Amino acid sequence: MDKKLTFEEIFEQNERRIHYQIHKMHIHDPHKEFFQEGLVALWNAYETYQPDKGPMATYFNYTIRNRLIDRMRRNNRQHEIQQKAAHEQKTQLTDGNYHCSTDGPRSIAANQSLPLKDASFWKHIQPQLTDKQWKWVDYAIIQEVPYKTIAKQENTTVEAVKSWGRHVKKKLKDPHFRELLSFEGYDV
Question: Which residue range or ranges hold the RNA polymerase sigma-70 region domain (predicted)?
């Protein structure tokens, strides 16, 4: 049989193969992107098929399936990159300096429960903090300096600066510490 089928004929006979592979792999394809990918794979398989290597149907299935897997991997990789970029942007915007509340994360500067600009409040607790904890309060809370800048200025890492802040927050939440300093009126 020397007569080669046209691609249109191959497509009519094998269109369901693409749909089958998409369904078998549980791919949600509302915009038909994966179907298009499968169609390109079918075309490539049609162009590169060698009859002496095995049955055409097996080659089509193999090519379509692997092309769909490659597309899923590209989509997943792209999604991960976008997630990392969004996380990095959020971290840069908040600089990790946020307070979790029932309304969701809010910048500490927006947290009205802390008397941020009340110098007497901070001077009242300063003796109870270590030097590094006080540096965090002074730079991050009072002066609103970004963590990266604090780390560079203090010749340390951003994680170390965040650790200073965690210790301060832990102290501020401790009922014994609050009682000791007599600032029960503040909701920290």
Answer: 11-77
What is the set of domains in the chain, with CATH numbers?
7-91 (no CATH), 96-181 (1.10.10)
Q: DSSP secondary-structure letter at 16? A: H
The predicted pLDDT at position 104 comes to: 55
- Please list, residue by residue across 61-77, b when 16 or more beta carbons sit within 10 angstroms of its beta carbon and e when fewer do: bebbbebbeebeeeeee
Q: At what angle do helices 56-94 and 33-48 cross, to 10 degrees?
A: 140
Between CA 50 and CA 40 the distance in angstroms is 18
| Nearest Cα to Cα of residue 158 among 100, 110, 95 | 95
Whole-angstrom Cα distance, residue 93 to residue 80? 20
Say how many residues make up the chain: 188
Give the number of other CB atoms < 10 A from CB of residue 141.
19
